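Protocol step 6 of 9: fold each sequence in the batch and record its structure tokens directly after the sequence line. For illustration, a two-sequence batch is reproduced in full.

Sequence one:
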Amino acid sequence: MRALRTLIAITLLALSPVAARAEGGTASVPQPDGYRQDNYRSPVPASLTGATVVTADELHRLMETRPIIVIDVLPQPPRPDKLPPETLWRPPPRHNIPGSIWLANTGYGALSLEAENYFRRALERLTLGDKARMLAFYCEAQCWMSWNAAKRALSYGYRHVYWFPGGVHDWTKAGYPTLSAQPVPMQ
């Protein structure tokens, strides 16, 4: 019995924070005071102060029953530096949650002025300026980008922010479909 409990404990540690939370465990990653600045693909906290953490099933249910704006913040890979200019290059395909909006490169810890303005304007357009609209942020599993973006939306005054730390991985694992996506152009 002791061996079984040890195996269960090890398994829970390996699960995403949402899965660990669902099993009654807690993630040991503390929330930073500011934004995560590096090592974005690493274990994330189990919570985000001011936001509601959701699982794939909870997000799916919200999308079916409430007017929620779902935002993917995965960075778009840049064109390789050493690729000759005449060479055709296509970024790898991105599959995201159907109905979501891809605001690429908005989950970094520090945003350029251009990226910050792009993110603010996009949220204003998507919410029609209503900071009470529901916003859900995601990226990949174990990725700080969505945590940063959700935290930033809270700092802008949005009051109903949801964070889906499981990202596309947990979405597809739960059996939900994805669609090929293109990012909203920076304007």
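Sequence two, same batch, same settings:
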Amino acid sequence: MNRTIFDTPVVNTLLRALSIAFLKLAGWKIEGQLPAQGFKSVLIAAPHTSNWDLPYTLMVAFVLRLNIHWMGKEQIFRPPFRGIMMWLGGIPVRRESANNLVAASAQAIRDATGPLQLVVPPEGTRSKVRSWKTGFYYIALAAEVPIVLAYMDYGRKVSGLGPVFQPTGDLEADMARIQAFYKPFRGKNAAQSGCD
């Protein structure tokens, strides 16, 4: 993975202080911390209903001292923004040809020599969806890392890291347990939160 804002000295420290101040002034509370087994992990980013999710996620990552990479649609990586988006930890995803994404992401996590948390929005879009995409699950399974249940609840202005979930390989049962955890949380556009 490329160098990001999260492992850039001085800039990281400054942005952490600014993130703490901004979130506090905006009335947000940050909960949890990354457990030792989350050193390398997949973080679920849910609910995902707004473009505001990205800047808030970046600020929360600074506060919790995470080293995140996140997936975004390829369109937001077009010039002249590509360099800055990559420095912010972004990984461009072409939705129409994402079939090798799971294997490549799992390999990148395994190959990382330091901490790496890969943030994946299971909805795959800001719009309301009928069911979650399962890429995050298969990435964690293939990389043999846990899934950290990260959340952003705009209703209560609370964000953070929830339980660590170790995928068992039983997709249906595991997804039911994971989605049950997210039921109480509401995205910025509450009507688009959750899936039916």
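Proceed to step 7 once all outputs are recorded. Observation for sequence two: The mean pLDDT is 88.
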